[in-house]
Amino acid sequence: MRGWDAQLRRGVVELAVMAAIERGETYGYRIVEQLRELPGLEFTESTVYPVLTRLAGEGMIAVRSEASRSGPPRRYYRLTEEGRMRMVRMAAGWTAMAGSMARLLEGAT
Hints:
Elements: H1 2-22, E1 26-27, H2 28-36, H3 45-57, E2 61-66, E3 74-79, H4 81-105
Antiparallel strand pairs: 1-3, 2-3
Helix pairs in contact: 1-2, 1-4, 2-3
Protein name: PadR family transcriptional regulator
Pfam families: PadR
Domain Transcription regulator PadR N-terminal: 17-87
């Protein structure tokens, strides 16, 4: 069962990261903190940061750096218009699939 859970989480990490960014410009560690507050979405930095790098490379998110009083510059992320459109499509697909699974599982347990 553990492998199935990991596979499901890998499938939703991109949508979860994009949804966290869609709420407003934010930095990587804050995204990790937001997701950790939600049961089932407790992703580590080593999972989230590669997704951010890939999304930036694909033009789905924009990145800017700002000096930090403690440590290296902080990188802030925001969705581009293309990223917002992708997230909307992904969210619609997720909602449809989750609804279908809920109907399928009714009475199954």
